[in-house]
Amino acid sequence: MKIYFENVGFFEKKRIQKIFNKAIEKTNSGISDVAIGVKFVSEEEIRSLNNGFRNIDKVTDVLSFPMLEIKEPQTLNEFESQRDFDGLLYLGDIAICTKRAKEQAKEYCNSYKRELSFLALHGLLHCLGYDHIEKEDEKKMMELAEAILNELNIKRRKNV
């Protein structure tokens, strides 16, 4: 999996890479030669993106911009014809507001590492076709996210 990072530190890059590789494996997405963009942004930037793309003029924690119209449980194999010139299947882009992540880490009694990891994974799952509009879909998405993070030993705990 190729990840195009912007404004993301070295250790966060390594952790997000591991999380995304595990997510691709656990979702049975079918292929691993995929690409995605991940950018850490300010409150101003995420608010602007949220307003511009969703017509919601407020700060949020994470935004996903899927490039494929995947409807879970579809696999990525169904999108083979949409590979780019490098042979990669581009899933989309994820923007994460680091300030909001810090606030939520305190609010949910998580570490900042855990909150960033959850938000990055949440964004990827949206790009893979998962959603949380319906209660049943939300339960499935949250259970999958928890399973992936727990398997990588990124567990909920008191702030550190």
Question: Could you characterize the architecture of this molecule?
Answer:
The chain is of the alpha/beta class and 160 residues long. The protein has a single domain (2-151), classed as 3-Layer(aba) Sandwich (Collagenase (Catalytic Domain)). 45% of the residues lie in helices and 17% in strands. It has five helices and four strands. It has helices at 10-26, 43-54, 98-107, 112-127, 135-151; strands spanning 2-6, 34-41, 62-66, 89-97. α1 links the parallel β1 and β2 (34-41). The radius of gyration is 15 Å and the shape is globular. It starts with a strand and ends in a 9-residue tail after the last helix. The mean pLDDT is 91.
Rg computed from alpha carbons, rounded to a whole number of angstroms? 15 Å
First-last Cα distance: 30 Å
Count of individual domains? 1
Which architecture per CATH?
Answer: 3-Layer(aba) Sandwich
Please state roughly what percent of the residues sit in beta strands, choosing from under 5%, 5-15%, 15-25%, 25-35%, 35-45% or over 45%: 15-25%
Task: Spell the H/E element sequence.
Answer: EHEHEEHHH
Q: How would you characterize the largest beta sheet?
A: 4 strands, mixed
Q: Predict the CATH topology.
A: Collagenase (Catalytic Domain)
Structural class: alpha/beta
Question: CATH homologous superfamily, by name?
Answer: Metalloproteases ("zincins"), catalytic domain
Strand tally = 4
Helix content: 40-55%
Low-confidence stretches: none
